Amino acid sequence: MTTRLNPYLSFRGNAREAMTKYHAIFGGELDLAPFSMFDMPVDDAEKDWVMHGFLRTAAGPTLMGADVPSSVDLPPNGVVAITGDEPHVVRGWWDALAENGTIELPLKQAPWGDYYGELTDEFGVRWMVDFGEPSSNNT
Fold first, then answer.
1. Is residue 137 part of a domain?
2. Whose CA is closest to 106, among 129, 134, 139?
3. Is the dihedral of CA 53, 102, 93, 41 positive or negative?
4. Considering the entire predicted model, what is its pTM?
5. Which part of the chain is the Glyoxalase/fosfomycin resistance/dioxygenase domain (predicted)?
6. Domain of 63?
């Protein structure tokens, strides 16, 4: 099973610097994708900010992080990302977390091909959910 819970750090314009430092500390592989890569609707000054940062550490754990556009509030309780390639499992978790919560971004197919959505559960915790088909290579 490759479904995972990952810490997802939120930054305001310095995600590239932070994730690069974490890469230097923990080693591994770092992937950074700016908002411009997917033509996301952000302020022109924020197009080069990190939309998604993914660090596969040398020790194995994963650390994710991104810049939150200035048009969006920083999540007060942080974010937990759920990623995987078992749609029925991840969609079931989405449905359970959404119960008594608030859907911030409906779960639907994203520009990068996976299904993606965001919600805040009844306890105020923000969740980002991303899944593809079993044969896809998810981060």
1. no
2. 129
3. negative
4. 0.69
5. 5-129
6. 4-131
